[in-house]
Amino acid sequence: MEEESEKNPETDVAPALISVHPTHKFVSVAVGSDLRVFNLQESCVVTLADESGAHKDSIRAIRYSANGQLFVSAGDDKLVKIWATDSWRCIYSVVSEKRVSAVGISNDGMFVCFADKFGVVYVVDIEDHDVEDRVPVNKKAVPILSHYCSIITRLEFSLDGRFIVSADRDFKIRVTIFPKNPVNGAHEIQSFCLGHTEFVSCLAFVGCQDYPQGLLVSGSGDSTVRLWDHTSGSLLDTYNCGAQAELLHSNGKEEEILPAITDLCTTPDSSVVAVAIQSLPGVMLLRCNLSTRTLSVAKVVSIAGEAFIPTSIGGHLGF
Amino acid sequence: MLEHEANANANSTHSKTTGLPRKRFYRARAHSNPLSDSHFPVPISPGQVDYSVYYPQLFPSPDKFDGSKRIEFADVGCGFGGLLISLSTMFPETLMIGMELRDKVTEYVKERVVALRSSNPGQYENVSVVRTNSMKYIPNYFEKEQLTKMFFLFPDPHFKEKNHRRRVINLHLLDEYAYVLREGGIIYTITDVEELGVWMKSCLEGHPLFEAVTKEELEADAVVKLLSSATEEGQKVARNGGQTFQAVYRRIAPCVSNCEKH
Ligand SMILES: C[S@@+](CC[C@H](N)C(=O)[O-])C[C@H]1O[C@@H](n2cnc3c(N)ncnc32)[C@H](O)[C@@H]1O
């Protein structure tokens, strides 16, 4: 989680973003157009090497690949930057026609996907990213699927890599088969997960050894976190976090307005989901029971301090 | 037609001074229909479509609906409903619905159906209309593999290249139509605009989940004859002696291996 940046009052500030390297080596933070990476193991700031220059406008999405070798940052400057985390060099800078709202990396690290503000999802083939002496080329992105006229808020690959899941600002979650050769498009829709009544802000998968395909969790402006069987699209459970958070931190005002879920975070091989809620100065931890397919509150962790609004939550939580 | 562009400025949901999400963009409304898109309500999911509203004779109360009989035909951009009226008596056992964006036109079709039902007792109970934006809400109305026929008759042409993405047939929307159509289901398209005819055919041809219906099958299919004659738009074109361009494709199973079309 990060506090909202209060600087630069003249321009719209994007929510601060945080992302933790899968083996806790690095933590990346984006505030506005500023991208910072900190080496957690050596306790030092990482210097980014980017010949094409830094992001010039608000960063809207950052993430590490599953094996931690790649990092992607993208946003309003219509650039998708793909970084090698061993050297922290920007190895590709992909130009998008429109502003970028979400990014995803296939589990095998072969493809980077990103969504633009018209709801179109593009794929970039980066299979050659670890080839020695590779000539830097300008990668071309190809459209693979689209949410008609709705901004895509999140892209996520299923744990088994079979599906790419996209969520939008209407209420829709689309589960699409991610083909072997995605540059020809991802045409086969597996399911729609429909149930949210406001924009979907975040997605994550929970899974464990006994349940490797996992289940999908989503958070929304409707103040709920929902659990889905993403292969069938069926809604398994709904947890009304907002109502809970309001009970715990009621300030007596604005009772009717349920706070939005701003982010979700899961950890591999754990059934705990950390939830950032707009009005909650802290984090709500939900337990996902994969055999009964239910959600329940495990703990609410309060974080003291003023003007704290969680906007993004990342990494392996040590709770 | 009305167009709901993606809110071009995602930033507008955030306050200029604090950068915080503005409450009014993020509040969950307690009472009004949360999925209302401008003026019409949208069902949250296909399971929440109230069939008693559309087919009152067949589903007298909302609780009587057991999901055993579902809508199978969708006429997308049905206009004044001429096609549905013909299909209704041709397939009396099949539930069918028109989807229309314009309010007044939808009201007209509703009244037309009510009038036909009362002057022909027992008939036209299987046909209805809903006001919606089909380009956004098809998955809210139909489950996966629910439909057996979809119709796109004389859709708006949207000539300018930058507006091609507004065309009701495009490669991406075909993914959704393939999702709601069951294997073997048929998609019927017709237009009097040659450029649009070529476009619709090439989109369908390029989509891995559709294949062209053969000439013999087209001749044997009584529905094909209605494409140019049953709708108001079709009749207008016929009166003016205009040419029409049709593309009729079948929903096929996906290739299991990683094979390529063509
Ligand atoms: C040229 S008319 C054809 C009507 C009818 N199919 C016929 O052949 O007479 C196209 C119709 O599509 C409707 N339409 C356009 N976009 C639509 C959308 N996104 N959802 C539903 N209807 C739409 C328009 O309101 C119009 O009535």
CATH topology description of chain B: Rossmann fold
Number of helices, counting only DSSP H or I runs of 4 residues or more of chain A: 1
Strands side by side in the biggest sheet of chain A: 1-2-3-4
Secondary-structure-derived class of chain B: alpha/beta
Alpha-carbon distance between the termini of chain A? 14 Å
What is the largest interface, and how many residues per chain? A-B, 59 and 46 residues
CATH superfamily membership of chain B: Vaccinia Virus protein VP39
How many separate domains of chain A? 2
Radius of gyration of chain B: 20 Å
Q: Give the overall shape of chain A, derived from the CA principal axes.
A: globular
CATH architecture name of chain B: 3-Layer(aba) Sandwich
Helicity of chain A, as a percent range: under 10%
* Most strands sheet of chain B: 7 strands, mixed
**What percent of residues of chain B adopt helix (DSSP H or I)?**
25-40%
Low-confidence stretches of chain A: 1-11
Biggest beta sheet attributes of chain A: 4 strands, antiparallel
CATH class category of chain B: Alpha Beta
Low-pLDDT windows of residues of chain B? 1-35
GO cellular component, one term (chain A): nucleus
Function (chain A): Required for the formation of N(7)-methylguanine at position 46 (m7G46) in tRNA. In the complex, it is required to stabilize and induce conformational changes of the catalytic subunit.
Pfam families (chain A): WD40
GO biological process, one term (chain A): tRNA (guanine-N7)-methylation
TL;DR of this structure?
Chain B: Residues 8-18 have a biased composition (Polar residues). The complex is a heterodimer of chains A (319) and B (262). Chain A has 319 residues and is mainly beta.
